Amino acid sequence: MTSIKATRTSPNTYTVVNDFGAELKVSAPGVPGTFSPGELLQAAVVGCASLSAEAQLAHQLGQDFTASATVESTETTGLITDLLYTLQVDMAGLDQQAQDKLIASAAKKIDRLCSVKRSIHHGINTETVIAP
Amino acid sequence: MTSIKATRTSPNTYTVVNDFGAELKVSAPGVPGTFSPGELLQAAVVGCASLSAEAQLAHQLGQDFTASATVESTETTGLITDLLYTLQVDMAGLDQQAQDKLIASAAKKIDRLCSVKRSIHHGINTETVIAP
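YS: structure for the whole thing
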């Protein structure tokens, strides 16, 4: 897996870049034009889950299917305890039975392929190094 | 905590927005101009940890201190098992003893304040809903 780099570009704000020209700003919640750390965690889950279902959905609905997704998190005493991922897909071209089948198979793909979701669920060891 | 929304804007790519005008694209690793889900998880950790140390560092080094950070992840059999967060801070104005003291107190703040890091370590329940 690739690594990311962050640089402090103003008080309370870091600019994050990867090796492929993407950039974002992370700051406290509610700062215009930036994501909070909690939102980036949600973005990781929304991306991972949605992309895991991509092949299945494109196969049944065509390459140009319409979909949107949200993630909501529940926090208790300073811990994020639950993340609820909801994917809304336009399946208007399918009958009820085909829709049910596609939903079940997409959910199965997400469970199997989304390593971010499984890793977060399982727990990830985190280490901190601070260097002068 | 605020929630985020993602819309499928092209095959294999979702555009993620929050309520404060920030936007990013998530896709498979290596797609120009986009972050992968794993990179967004790293970005969540780098932001959370760095911002948790902000007040401590600004107090000792001034509002305009220079810092950069990285996160590297270790993956085994489809699970992200370890995230190594490294923060590099310019402490040239401090003597060795003051540097050691600041590093220790910043690390303590990160452990105490960074809820994303603690939540990931602890494990987060994740649920999926797919709707037509």
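YS: worth flagging: The longest helix of chain A spans residues 37-61.
IM: good catch. Also The mean pLDDT of chain A is 95.
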